[in-house]
Amino acid sequence: MKNWMRKLARHYQKTRDLYPEQKLLLVFDIDGTILDMRYMILRILKLFDKSHSTAFFKDLKLSDINFNENQVEELLGQLKIPGQQSKEIFDWYLEHRWSSTSILESHRPFLGVVEVIRWFQIQPNTYVGLNTGRPESIRNDTLRSLNKLGEEYKVSFTDDLLYMNPYGWDMKVSEGKVAGLRHFQKGGYRIFAFVDNEPENLRAVSEIDEYREILLLHANTIFESKRKRLPGSTMSGKVYDITELIPERALPSHVQFVWHGANDEANLRQFLASNIHWAEYDVRMDPDGDNLILRHDSFERTPMQEHEEFLLLEHILKLHKKMDKSLKLDLKEGGLLIDKIVEVLKASGFDSSQLWFNGNVEVLQEDRFRKLAKAYPRAIKQCPIDFLTPIILSVPDKAKEMLDIFRGWGINRFSVNWKTPYMRQLLDQIDKWGFEVNLYNIPDLESFLKAVLLLPRSITSDFNFPKWHYYGRGAGENLKHYEYSIRRSP
Ligand SMILES: [Mg+2]
What we know:
Elements: H1 4-18, E1 23-28, E2 35-36, H2 38-52, H3 72-78, H4 83-96, H5 100-106, E3 108-109, H6 113-121, E4 126-135, H7 139-150, E5 162-165, H8 173-186, E6 189-196, H9 199-208, E7 215-219, E8 235-237, H10 242-245, E9 256-259, H11 265-273, E10 278-285, E11 292-294, H12 313-323, E12 326-331, H13 337-348, E13 355-358, H14 361-375, E14 380-384, H15 389-394, H16 396-408, E15 413-417, H17 423-433, E16 437-442, H18 445-453, E17 458-461, E18 464-465, E19 470-471
Parallel strand pairs: 1-4, 1-6, 4-5, 6-7, 7-8, 9-10, 9-17, 10-12, 12-13, 13-14, 14-15, 15-16, 16-17
Antiparallel strand pairs: 2-3, 10-11, 18-19
The structure holds magnesium ion (MG).
Magnesium ion (MG) binds near residues 31, 32, 33 and 197.
C-alpha cells in the first residue's frame, strides 16, 4: 500500500476491530507536521526588514524556504548575508519567533491536515492528541492558536490531550516524544498512530512499540534529522488527502445524501444502481401544460432542442416505488405546478416521509409552501437562503426573524450553496439557531468529503466521483453536464 492516508484508514479500522471498547488515540506532532513553519519564518524575517529599515528579505518567497524552523542560520548563509548582520538577524529571529503574536498570527496548517484531524474527532470513542517539542511555557498560546485555526473546521484541541516537552526548549526532544506517548497510554488511551516530521522522533517511538501497534507516519515536509534514520515500518507522505482517508462505507449514516439532478436516463441509471437513497429532480410543466417533466432549464432560457426527450415525473415515481428510494423535487415554477404535483403524488401513494420539496421563496411564495406543508406534514420542505447571507452575518437578529417567518410557512430545512462566500460562518450561525441545513453545489469528491466533515443534515451533490465509481452528471444547466473521464488501468 503506497498511500499513507489509506494505510492510516486501514490501520485505524483494524485497531477498532481489535479493541472495540477502548479509547483510541491518534497522536500528532505540531511544528512541521500540522503547521507549515515556512509562514512563520517568512513573517519573522520580513518583520526584521520592516523594523530595521533593511531589505534583506525583500524578494524572499515561501517557496524559497527549504529549511525548517531550527535551520534559519543555514537559510541566512544561503542568502549570502554577511556574518555580523546574519548573527544579528538570527538573534532577532530567535527572540521573536515564539512570541504570542507570532504564534497566533503566522502559524498556518498544511492543506488537508485539519480535515484529517476532524475526521478522527468525529469517530466514536476516538481522540486526537498533540505531542510537541514546544515547552510548557507556551501551552496557552499553543492551544489558543490551534483552536483558532481549527474553529471553521469544527476542530478543537483540549488541554489534557496536549503533551509538551518537559525538558525545555530543544532539549531531548525525542525522549520527550516517548514520554508523551507513555503519558497518553497511562491515561487509558490506545495509540494507533503517531505522525511526526522528524525521523528521529519516529525512530524513538518505534523502539518502545514492541508489538508494532502504533502506525508510524512520517510527514515528509521539511525535516531536520537525517532521512536514513527513518524506521523500516514507517509510511511517508506529503499530502493529507482526505479522498484517500475516507472510504464510502465510512460515511456518517445520520447525514442524508442526495443525487443531484438525475433528470436524464444516463444519470438516473447511475443513481438507481448506487447506494444513495435520495435523488433530486427538476420538475416543470411540459410546453403543452399537460404533464410534469424533468428539466433543469426553463424553456425561455434554453428553448426546446431538436429531438429533445423528457422523462416524465410519473415514470420516476414508479421506479422509486419499486426500488424503495426517496424523492427530492426541485419545483422550478409556481402557478399550477404545485396543484398538479399534489394530484400526481396522491395517485402514487408515496408516504410523506419519503418526499422532499425544494423551491425558491420568491417562486413558490407563502401560499404554495403552506399548501405543500398541509398536504405533506412529514416531508422535508426546503428553500435556498444564500440570498440572506449578508444579513445573517451582519444583522443576525433580523435574519432570524426572516427565517422564523419561513418556518411559519412550513419550511423545515434551509439550503446553502457550498460556494457561498463565508459559507462556514453561515453554517455555524444556522447551526446555533438549531435549524437543519442542506449543502448543495458541491463539485467533486474532495469538496463532498469536506462538506461531510461539517456534518450538515443533508448534502446534495452530483456524485461525479470517479474514484468511487460514481459517474453522476448533474442537472445539466443549459443542457451541459460536468465531464469525467475513466482511465484505463496501466
Ligand atoms: Mg515537528
